[in-house]
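Morning run. Coffee first, then this:
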Amino acid sequence: MNGNSEALLISLSRYLRPAISLPWMSGPEPISEELATFADSRHRVGPLLHIARQSCADITAESNAASILKSAYQQNGYAGLRQQAAEKKISTLLTAHSVPFSFLKGRGLAEQLHDDSTVRQSKDVDILIPTDQSRQAIELMNQEGYIFKSNTVKRREKPELARQDMELKRFKDITFVDPAFSVPIELHHRLFKFEPKTLTTDFNESVQFTASPSLSNSFYCLYLVLHGALAMWPRLKWVVDLSVMARHMPVHIRLEMMDIATSYGCDKAVAASLLMTEEVFPDSLDDEWHLLLNTYRKDKPVKEMVALFYETLTANDNGRPSLPLKSFILSGSADIVFSGKIGMIEIMLARFLNSVFVRI
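And here it is:
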């Protein structure tokens, strides 16, 4: 943990509070150029910090800092327009050929969380499609001129459909770039690289391939929390998402989400994520949340996960914490998040096949 990075993060979280409807915590010093750069480049909340400064008279900024934040907001606005156009184009293509899909996170989430969707940065478009139509979707994108970006060592000038399909199945997603708008399109056929066997299937049955899943769907809420937890919460942008989600989530959705999480052995990871969010943004959890999470507070694995999440979040760079040796050898963070729910043989086989595939 970098002490300066932690101090900057604590200061940043205080300044962001008015922009996410949390009570202002006094801090007389103006936003520095260092903090503005840290907010924008390390944690991708530059646009949100700009709005916090605009909406709260008590927040001031040095001139260079104000310019950095204003530019971040404007640039994200332009990026949002390109993403919107790219989303419309790919959704028209998939709909015309009867390929069901759901957009994950991105602009749809920003519109549900914030009055001004420009405050949430998003660099690409994530699309989940049915496993049995992945090859069809890939073929359509090739035909329409989307540029394939391979994750493997050996890249070919003319991507082969079979290889692309295999890469998608091995690594859960593949990336194309929209040639007209220069927006990366990540095509997913499952939610996570390592996950319990029925997780994506059950998710699909729940959201029914709604184009933009709603936060009123408890399974979608669980996905968003797990997305952050499996990455070990490296960016404040995602913690902001959870703070807002937690405060707007009705009690019955909270209970449903925790029940689903328990069935996949990831309820402790969800609890740790919420407790870490409360540590960073006090007042994110109301009395009902505290009551629901009471049984997890003294649980040793939960406390260890909170510490790992906070270590990642406060690191100087966007990286991963030092995981326990067993988790590092097996499925990484998934071994912690889905404790005991992913078979060792399945993991070792997947790792072997992945290592072989990237070299062929």
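Residues 18 and 117 are 16 Å apart (CA to CA). Good start to the day.
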